[in-house]
Write a structure and sequence with these properties.
By secondary structure, the protein is an all-alpha fold. It has a domain at 30-75. The chain has helices at 11-20, 33-46, 51-69.
């Protein structure tokens, strides 16, 4: 059995980072039949296995881009 390679990073730090990224808040989204069909077609076409990850990623990319473009200005 091969030995694990040590990364040099404190394991407690890694555990803390992992805990900070744990998803604990739930939100529900409703789609109509056409929207769901489009999502299903996209997933089938591009081999997406997790629709929830796809929707989460697309939503967060849009939100973060909008926040970046509309950051407060001092003057």
């Amino acid at each position: 059995m091969a030995a694990k390679k040590k990364s040099g990073i404190d394991p407690r730090y890694l555990d803390k980072e992992k805990a900070a990224l744990k998803r604990s808040a739930r939100k529900s989204v409703f789609f109509n039949k056409k929207e769901l069909a489009a999502i299903d077609q996209y997933c089938k076409l591009f081999g997406v296995r997790s629709r929830s990850a796809l929707i989460r990623q697309a939503t967060m990319e849009h939100i973060l881009q909008a926040l970046d473009e509309n950051h407060p200005k001092l003057f």
